[in-house]
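Researcher: I've been going back and forth with a colleague about how Putative amidohydrolase might be arranged in three dimensions. Neither of us has a model we trust, so I'd like an independent prediction. The organism is Deinococcus yavapaiensis KR-236, in case that matters for your notes. Sequence below.
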Amino acid sequence: MNIAIAQYHVEAQPSWDAYVSKITSWIQEAASNGAQVLVFPEYASLELASLLAPHIQADVKLQLPALQAFLPDFVELHRSLAALHGVYVVAGSFPVADGGKYVNRAYFLTPQGTVHHQDKLVMTRFEDEKWGVAAGEGLTVFHTSLGNVGINICYDSEFPHLARALAEGGAEVLLVPSCTETIMGYHRVEIGSRARALENQMYAVQSPLVGAVPWNEAIDVNTGAAGAYGPIDHGFSAQGDGVVTKGPLGVATWVYVTLDIARLRRVRADGTTLNYQHWPLGEAQAKGGAEVVTLGVSRMQTPTTA
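Model: Here is an independent structure prediction for Putative amidohydrolase. You can compare it with whatever you and your colleague have in mind.
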């Protein structure tokens, strides 16, 4: 499976046509380099807010309803380009009005021209408390001829049971579109992705927003690097740490990687360790909870004050 991972910089666009030209160019470049699956980051769609009035650009709560006018054309643009180039595309996630609330939705477009999606399920404090973006519902595994794919949007990658449910549904590749302001946020998603790859003996692929967007308060600062992570076993990474590839921090570019799905399946069946198979054993041991033992504190351990 050949994947192009976007380190994507949101830029102010003068018109819808200019935005179309940019997305078309990015997808054309990745497809011409042999990519079969293209992954854009979380909230890359907020580039469209640059087409709104300045006072709306400055207030995310005004952006959410205003952006809905672009949604049909946004989906159709990515759908048509996926079909044209014969690739799968994870479009930059979009805050979609759905059932009286806004959800953070990543559309998954196929070479056959079909449209699917995965919503974010666990919201950050910024989304929940400041932006008014709420949790979606449900997980989906996309079975393709290249391998089986699931999506955890950013913060979702930090919760093991979400990726585990996808793995039990057959997912072999976890796609992680992300948007993080600080280096700490980036590393939380990176480490979460690497942990999910370890636990489930799957690949995890992180696609970040990068760079400054001073006109948009929601994504004004973005820190990250693309990465692809695999099981920590023979044949996945040069250093034996599970890092298949990693892009340069903060640079707008495609990062390309080829994932060996056949090797992944062999390791799940007969690897050095069997984390994927042994998950139920860990769950069974944890069912009774943990015994709490209160230990006495000796005089030597008692803190003193001046």
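Researcher: What would you highlight for our discussion?
Model: I'd start with this: The chain has one domain: 2-301. After that, consider the following. The chain has nine helices and 16 strands.
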